Amino acid sequence: MSKLNEQYNLLFKQLATLLDGETNMVTNMAQFSALIFNNIEDLNWAGFYLVGSGNSLQLGPFQGQVACTKIPIGHGVCGLAAKKRETVTVADIDQFEGHIACDSRSRSEIVCPVIAEDQLIAVLDIDSPLFNRFSQQDIKGIENLVEILVNKTRWSLSY
Ligand code: SME
Fold first, then answer.
1. Which helix (H) or strand (E) holds 38?
2. Which CATH number fits domain 3-152: 3.60.110.10, 3.40.50.300, 3.30.450.40, 3.40.190.10?
3. How confident is the model at residue 158 (pLDDT cuts 50, 70, 90)?
4. What digits encode the pLDDT tens for the residues 89-129?
5. What is the predicted pLDDT for the residue at 63?
6. Atom of ligand 1 nearest to the CA of 80
7. Within 6 Å (CB) of ligand 1, which residues are found?
8. Strand segments (E) across 52-107
9. Which pTM does this prediction carry?
């Protein structure tokens, strides 16, 4: 098993333990953000945008610098992942037309949708100061982490 796979396997266990017995969505998203921000290398921002009222995403629990509070669905990397309901990875944010710059250190980004019972709840946004930071293994690992979060949490859109 590769070192990266081992790191993700450890994170899966740590996340499951951390969220054990807790189903509150804000609490779990906050814990998730802190766990990945402090244990995945070379990140400068990690957190959630929640499906808000109207056609926009609203800033949720995160770690990193202050960020923009609302993103229209379809705009930026977050809005695209929300619209497509698919993970979007951007190797060089300067090459992504419409990228919304929150932290000037960000060079690459991954956004993974959070879907529970077929409903889009939020997107997880992770930024790195390195170009092309997120490999296929990272994508799979991050999607698995989100799946653990989804299964451990009671989701409500009337937060
Ligand atoms: N870059 C994102 C906006 C959110 S910040 O990176 C935290 C985007 O283009 O959607």
1. helix 25-39
2. 3.30.450.40
3. low
4. 999 999 999 999 999 999 999 999 999 999 999 999 999 99
5. 98
6. 10
7. 45, 67, 71, 76-79, 99-100, 102, 106, 109, 125, 127
8. 56-64, 70-72, 88-90
9. 0.97
